[in-house]
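Help wanted!
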Amino acid sequence: MLAILGFAFYDWHYFFGQLVDGLTHGSLYALLALGYTMVYGILKLLNFAHGDVYMLGAYMGYVVLTGLGGSLAPEVPTPMLIILMFGAAMLGCALLGVVIERFAYRPLRKAPRIAPLISALGVSFFLQQTAVLLFRPIPKSYDTYSLHGGQLFHHVSLGNLRIQYAQILVIASAVGLMIALALLVWRTNIGKAMRATSYDLEAASMMGIDVDRVIAFTFFVGSALAGAAGVMTGLVYQNIQPYMGFGAGLKAFTAAVVGGIGSIPGAMLGGMIIGVAEQFTIGYLSSAFQDLITLSVLIVFMMFRPTGILGTPIPQKA
Amino acid sequence: MRKERRTRKVLFIAALGLVAALASSAAATARLSSEASALAPSPLCTGSAGVGFASVLTGPAAFLGQDQLHWMQVFLAAWNAGKPIPGVPAGLKRVPVNLALVGDSALDPQKAATVAAQMASNKSILGMVGFAGSNENLGGGPVLDRAGIAYITGSATRDDLTRKLKNLFRIVPNNLKQATVAIDYLLKNGLIKKGQQAMVVDDGEAYGINIADDAQKLLEAAGLKVDRESLPESSSSANADFTALANKALAINANIVYAPTQVASDSQLFAQQLKSNGYKGIFQATDGSFDSKSFKFPGGYVSFFGADVYRIPVARPFVAAYTKVWGATTPFGAPNFVAAQMLAMAIAKSCADGQTSRADVRKTLSGVSISNSILGHAVAFDFAGDVKKGPAKGITLWQIQPNGTYKLIFSA
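Answered by r_m:
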């Protein structure tokens, strides 16, 4: 850390560039981590299929993009195109999440814990192979460097510091979605029901909360965020492929654990930490250490603070 | 404490689930292979000779192996139908060849060894096309060597493969030759100079690491300073992002970024991210990115072990046959057509006396030559099994034009 601060002082522009790139990446991890943490918070289930929902979200955005003429010759104005891509991916993934919950997890809710875990793995492989069959395993490119003359990648200058429009779009959208989620959870009746279900599913049910509906809604929201993250990935990093969900899911899960699994602000914070840590590792150490450092962070937290940064131990009944 | 224990338990169960899923996947693959083996015909010259094919048919790089398999099928269809094939003498008596066993080595050396054992135990198999990757050849090759089966790879380029594996033949030149041609060209034309800074980025795969090692040594020998990096490619269950390296290239004032990968769209992304950050130096990609549909960054350089099959006149009927059934091809596929051709010609020649064996085929293969392959050059093997005559004009170096097309700028 001291070395990074030293380098930051030595080359502030370089530090800022890596930081912005890290926050961009971290925003995606955070959106994805929210899905893991919300589901875990309510069902205590590691939803391994979540990364693949994100992957399908990226493909849904791609289908809209190519269906509307592609990056080189879009048939609608760029802002409209991007909104449609987000809309389709978020809605499509949200519905997919509900379907997954209904058919793969709900029937196993009272089964031993290993059953839904294996079901989650099965769903993950199913989604992955469906994408392979539908889109072939060759990476597809959003090619957004060609969209509107590559304006998404033009820079805004803040003095000597530069930031791309695409990065602003991703970070701002992610922060906006996270704020919307926080408001939903803390300021609405359904949010209150989610928190109650998360605290004690059985008690919530006895209090008249329709827990099936709440759980389905949780999957709906978490999967919509994954869909948004998928489109953002395509917009900024271009390439999408059927296996992208596994790696991203692993990082997002790490982010959720680091932030405190079950904690919504924790997932946001964890995502940003992992994104920035990865970027600084490449920037200040070596790219060869990227995954090593990220997963070491996970191990350190598992060993010394298993509840994560913002997670709190659940009080147990005497 | 209880929560901690519960979290650990969940993680343990998750790991168990993963292992179970992987095991079931491997079992399914083995079952498919053994079913194909049971249907294998006998290797009599009077009937139909059996050959094997092994490549990566599932997983992130399956596109490559599927493409290779399809090209072999295009060849077998033409060969068995008696259609004219460039390089096959009109007087050669063709022995029908059937694909007796298809094995999925999944870019995994251990799976490759299993596939090789299946090939070895199938007595109808006289030779094999594959494996695709260098690591797979290192895993499965020794088994094939012991079984006396000749195997021809159309894409494995690691330098030391043919020295380590006695029955391996390859259609494509090795990594060192390719890196040497590209870097020599850049030095001789003053595009890079002694004392300048280079960044060499491998993709974490056996292919990329080897050619990046070669390039690093060549650049250092030429007096350049080298920053060596490694980032996994898009196909390895993660999405590549090169922004951190793009920042770094700019910070160290790199004059050249040498970045081998097997995913052409990764090269495109890396080059775009470099440019977007203000990088103005050279971007050099390698054969894995030779794909004008995916890597089309203006000004970028690409070295390749052959030519783009779409551009070769003699390949047109076969490209048409391929695209009619399977759509667009990748640059990795067509060498397998030629690999299958070499094998079929060796079988046909060795059957001249009415009978053959694995040893006969292997021995005959060393003497087979194709004067004009669909790759646009002659093909024959040297004593080690490497391609002897190589591309007609040697390894090629291309520069991408403003409209995205590839312009040949140098032939070795």
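OP: Thanks! One thing I noticed: The first strand of chain B starts at residue 49 and ends at 55.
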